[in-house]
Specification:
This protein is of the alpha+beta class and 96 residues long. The protein has one domain. The chain is built from three helices and three strands, in the order ααβββα. It has a three-stranded antiparallel beta sheet with strand order 2-1-3, with no helix packed on it.
Length: 96
């Protein structure tokens, strides 16, 4: 089992995933990302249970649907990764 864990961390995860700290950086410096706005729904039943669905098409449905009247959220769609890493390293390497 130990070898499997080591293999996973050296071969499968060939890098560091920074999605959690990037979320915090988005709050500190939102200009490092671009955003789109839309409705998010999560499937709660059936074979797609747990699937997240995002609708940013700004469609105007002809009838009342499950998307009608739902609040929108802002979602980051691009990130200036080098700038995020630089900011993260600056914060980790300073005494402030």
């Amino acid at each position: 089992m130990e070898n499997l864990v080591a293999l996973f961390h050296t071969e499968i995860l060939a890098g560091v995933y920074l999605h959690d700290p990037t979320t915090l950086i988005a709050a500190v410096n939102p200009s490092l990302m671009t955003y789109t706005e839309g409705v998010v729904r999560v499937q709660t039943v059936g074979i797609t249970k747990g699937l997240t669905v995002f609708d940013n098409t700004k469609k105007r449905y002809g009838e009342i649907t499950a998307w009608t009247g739902m609040p929108t959220v802002k979602v980051a769609v691009t990130v200036d990764a080098p700038a995020v890493v630089e900011l993260m390293m600056q914060r980790l390497m300073t005494d402030d």
